[in-house]
Structure formats: C-alpha cells, structure tokens
C-alpha cells in the first residue's frame, strides 16, 4: 500500500484485534510497531495493525479500502472466534469505519470521530487539514453508518467534550449498538485517563473480551488508585470548560470529606475565572 502498512502477528485463533494508528503514533521514537502492540502481545491476541507511512490521513485512500475488501473476500476474519476493531481518536475512526469488513465483530474505541466530512459532521472543525488529505468517497467512509454492522461498540469518551459528544450522537442516531463508558472531564485523550488511574490493562482487557459494563466501569473508576491526582485533573478541566462555580462548590465539599487534600492553585484559578466573568463584583462597596 502506498500510504499504509499492515502488520500481522498470529498468536491465537481465539481473538484477532485489528488496530489503527492515532495521530501521535508517527511521533514515537524507535521501531514503528502498530498501536497497542505491547498490550495485545501480553494478552496473547492475534493482531492486525494498520500503520501510517506518512501523514495523518484518517485512512482515506483507495489502496487501504481495497485491502479490507480483499480480506473480507478471502475469509481472513472467519479464521478467528472473535474479531475486535480497536483504536483511539483517528484510530477510533478507522475502527468504526472498517469494521463492516468483518460483520458482527466488536469495536472498542476511545474518543473516536465518525467522519471529518463537513456535510456529515459540521461540528467537527479540529481536523480540516486532515480531511483535505483523504478521499471521502467510496466504501468504509462514514463510521456511524459502517458501525451498524458491529455486534457492539464499546466507546470511552468525555461527555463534556463537545465534538466527541456529537460523534456519539451520530452513532446513536444511526442505531449502533453502543456500550458507553463515560469519563467526565477526561478531555479528548481518554486513554491517558485510564493510564493515570492505573486501569488501562484491566479495563481494556475486559472491553476487548466483551465483559465490561458501564456500571462496572464507573465502579472501577471510583476505586482506582491515584484518585487525588485524577480529581486535580478533573477540577482543572472543569475550570477550562467554564464551570468555576461548580469547582468551588466541589472544593468546599472536599475540605470536609478529604481534609488532607489541598488544591490552593485550583481554588485561585476558579476564583480568577469567576472574577473575569463577573467584573462588577470588584465595584461592590465602591463609593
């Protein structure tokens, strides 16, 4: 293929995981392994990794679509008991868009896009340059449409991230069988939030095996290690998203329930944000 490379690691006939690179993959030092390689090797899953050769292009080139057509026609996916398409952000788009090559496969994705096409997703303004690099016609184009063939789509996202929330809505409107895992104020890099909590291996392992429910996920988040650091990140994100009053209210509660936790900078930042939006308060008591 001219713009992508497919690397296949046969380890087991039970589960095949198909992965797609995300935007950060090309910046990694050292040998280029597919996204998720180390984790999937430890899980002993067979692995088909789609790797970018040059620019981030959201996998929109004819040679790659023809490659997946051939895999489907040759019955490649039929050689495994379970097939899972797996990716994050741009890689999440790839997983959603190409899963129809293996009907009834499962999908596990983190903050994916369903399309960059302004006609299909006018709210998606973050990757206009990348949209221009690819061919958004033909097959495997609209992730919301293609993902309807999946048995289930387990999707991790921040419900307060506007564009990511809209992509979820497109999947819901298309009738995709969604299993939603919410990470409030996690931002776009939801996978990173699991790593911070020390949950990546357990959560991703359960998701790939189809045994993770939203209630189970929420419980694991609450019990995760590094809760204070995660709380700091969440409160900071809440200020960035325009909720400083909520942050101050939360800090008051934390002072009672967690007296050992100190967030003076966050408290100052929240108050500064309130002062910027309500400058009239500085005039109170003025002659």
Quick summary:
With 287 residues, this protein is α/β, with parallel strands linked by helices.
Q: Sheet with the most strands? A: 7 strands, mixed
Strand-residue fraction? 5-15%
Rounded to the nearest angstrom, the distance between the terminal CA atoms is: 74 Å
User: Would you tell me which CATH topology of the largest domain applies?
Assistant: Rossmann fold
List segments where confidence is low: pLDDT < 50 over at least 5 consecutive residues.
281-287
Helix content: 40-55%
Polypeptide structure, described:
- The structure is a single chain.
- With 287 residues, the chain is an alpha/beta fold.
- It folds into 2 domains: 4-225, Alpha/Beta hydrolase fold, catalytic domain (Rossmann fold, 3-Layer(aba) Sandwich); 228-279.
- The chain has helices at 37-42, 62-73, 90-98, 128-133, 143-146, 162-173, 190-197, 200-208, 214-223, 227-240, 244-257, 264-277; strands spanning 4-9, 15-20, 46-52, 82-88, 106-110, 152-157, 178-182.
- It has a 7-stranded mixed β-sheet, with helices on both faces.
- The longest helix has 14 residues, at 227-240.
- The N and C termini lie far apart (74 Å).
